[in-house]
Amino acid sequence: MTKNAPPRSLDETALSAFLAEHTFGALATLRRDGRPHLSTVLYDWNPVTREVRISTTEERLKVKQLRNNPTASLYVSSADHWTFAVVEGKAELSEVTRTPEGERRLFITLKTDKLYGTALDIA
């Protein structure tokens, strides 16, 4: 490809493979005033169910915001930032469990409504 090549849209298979290859992303939730709140998260992608699973603690702001509005997006970028994927959907929160250390943990499951992303092929 040339330096002036336009971004290339990734199909469902390529997007799923890209999400499976990575583990870090930015989860966007919505504040009450509509502004986004971004959190760096460690995630797991399930290509069969098309769901993202994130472990977190109950007191995190993202949990409070998802209880108010389950709309969320996960942005994942390649290390060189030339490729990215976005998962948009509704999040579900698991029941809270207590760890032996006393943490109150739960899982966020983001169910995919829309999946998109591009790659920029730079020579």
Give a structural overview.
There is one protein chain. The chain is mainly beta and 123 residues long. It has two helices and nine strands, in the order E-H-E-E-E-E-H-E-E-E-E. The chain has helices at residues 12-21, 61-68, and strands at residues 8-9, 24-30, 36-42, 44-46, 51-57, 71-77, 83-93, 97-98, 104-119. Strands 1, 2, 3, 4, 5, 6, 7, 8 and 9 form a nine-stranded antiparallel sheet that branches. The N and C termini lie close together (5 Å).
In short:
The chain is mostly beta strands and 123 residues long. Helix content is 15%, strand content 50%. Strands 1, 2, 3, 4, 5, 6, 7, 8 and 9 form a 9-stranded antiparallel β-sheet that branches.
Beta-strand proportion: over 45%
SSE order, one letter for each helix or strand: EHEEEEHEEEE
Radius of gyration, in angstroms, nearest whole number? 16 Å
Mean pLDDT: 94
Give the distance, in angstroms, between the N- and C-terminal Cα atoms. 5 Å
List the helices and strands and how they pair.
Layout: E1 8-9, H1 12-21, E2 24-30, E3 36-42, E4 44-46, E5 51-57, H2 61-68, E6 71-77, E7 83-93, E8 97-98, E9 104-119
Antiparallel strand pairs: 1-9, 2-3, 2-6, 4-5, 5-9, 6-7, 7-9, 8-9
